[in-house]
């Protein structure tokens, strides 16, 4: 359950977390990606309460990551699917899963493997530079102010730090 809203923060990360920033949401998105598209399937797979799932799906639909279409008329029942924005989130889920496989693997081992359809090989997601394709590491990236940067909640000190001399995160 969320304790804080980030809606007023002037930060793209905070705005993203407003939509996906609770423990259940990435798991709901993962299950939709893996093909579980019915409400009852999601409840059963995740062990989530129906009220909580209703809330999470509503937030994801409002945020544009999930759409629903009726598959039954009486009573009306819906199938859920990832939208384009939801599909764009899948690489983030893959990267989080890869991090978990390296640093928080369940005792029995890696629960899911992903095969890259283009080359046919089992793959581990990495975050790469959009320009040169090299993997990004924390020590290889230098942040700088963007066109929307300003001193505001969520970036109260960051804007000042980034406006100063070149800064490299630790």
Largest sheet: 2 strands, antiparallel
Strand percentage lies at 5-15%
Radius of gyration (Å): 19 Å
State the strand order across the main sheet.
1-2
Task: Give the overall form.
Answer: globular
Q: Segments where pLDDT lies below 50 for 5+ residues?
A: none
What portion of residues is helical? 25-40%
Q: Find the CATH topology of one domain.
A: Arc Repressor Mutant, subunit A
CATH class of one domain: Mainly Alpha
Number of helices: 6
By secondary-structure content and strand pairing, the structural class works out as: alpha+beta
C-alpha end-to-end distance: 31 Å
Any guess at the CATH architecture of one domain?
Orthogonal Bundle
The secondary-structure element order is HHHHEEHEEH
Q: What is the average of the pLDDT values? A: 89
Total E-strand runs: 4
The name of the CATH superfamily of one domain reads Winged helix-like DNA-binding domain superfamily/Winged helix DNA-binding domain
What does this structure look like?
There is one protein chain. The protein has 170 residues and is of the alpha+beta class. The chain has a domain at 12-89: Arc Repressor Mutant, subunit A (Orthogonal Bundle). It has six helices and four strands. The chain has helices at residues 12-20, 24-33, 39-46, 50-62, 84-103, 158-163; strands at residues 66-72, 77-82, 114-115, 122-123. It has a two-stranded antiparallel ribbon. A hairpin with a 6-residue loop joins β3 and β4 (122-123). α2 crosses α5. It is globular. The model has no long low-confidence stretch (mean pLDDT 89).
